[in-house]
Amino acid sequence: MTDPLPGLGLLLLVLLLVIVGFIADHIIGEHLMRRLERRLEQIPLVQSIYLTLKGMTDILNFRSRFGTSTVVAFPFPRDGLWALGFVMGSAPGAIQVAPPENLFMVFVPTAIHPFTGFLAFVPERALQPLNLLPEDAMKMEFSAGFYKPRTGWLSAPKSNP
């Protein structure tokens, strides 16, 4: 007996594998990973190593952390020198020491090594928003300035931090 639609069996097999893979990854896999994480967090020495490594991999999840940030230039570490940074939000109330000025939290990654950086509390007036995508800013940082973004990146974008 011949198959009425050639390749139908192969198509159904691929579809079945995709469905099983989706269920295993998103339903069963997430449940197993949560249980494994809870167990690892209960072992004293393993806990500190695991949480450190997990934090480092979370940093690599760039888009969720920096994807919506505004890229700014501001005087750092002193006037006359400039650094690129990412506005992470308004500083907490306890840090707002100069009432007439609004302070912003600005993360300044260090070149070459993406796991370190500085968190600066910068007055809004000192921030110069740039027409630069966060991905391009990170490329500039990690390449130590070798990466050249598109022209016009030094101009201010249409919106402020």
Described by strand count, sense and barrel closure, the largest sheet is: 5 strands, antiparallel
CATH second-level architecture of the largest domain: Roll
Q: From the alpha-carbon coordinates, what is the Rg to the nearest angstrom? A: 24 Å
What do the pLDDT scores average to?
81
Strand content: 15-25%
Please mark out the parts with pLDDT under 50 across 5 or more consecutive residues, or reply none: none
| Classification by helices and strands | alpha+beta
Description:
- With 161 residues, the protein is α+β, with helices and mostly antiparallel strands.
- It has four helices and five strands, in the order αααβββββα.
- A five-stranded antiparallel beta sheet has the order 4-3-2-1-5, covered by helices on one side.
Task: Give a nutshell description of this structure.
The protein has 161 residues and is of the alpha+beta class. The chain is built from four helices and five strands; from the N terminus they run H-H-H-E-E-E-E-E-H. It has helices spanning 8-40, 44-60, 62-66, 134-142; strands spanning 70-75, 82-90, 103-109, 117-123, 128-129.
Question: What's the arrangement of secondary structure elements?
Answer:
Elements: H1 8-40, H2 44-60, H3 62-66, E1 70-75, E2 82-90, E3 103-109, E4 117-123, E5 128-129, H4 134-142
Antiparallel strand pairs: 1-2, 1-5, 2-3, 3-4
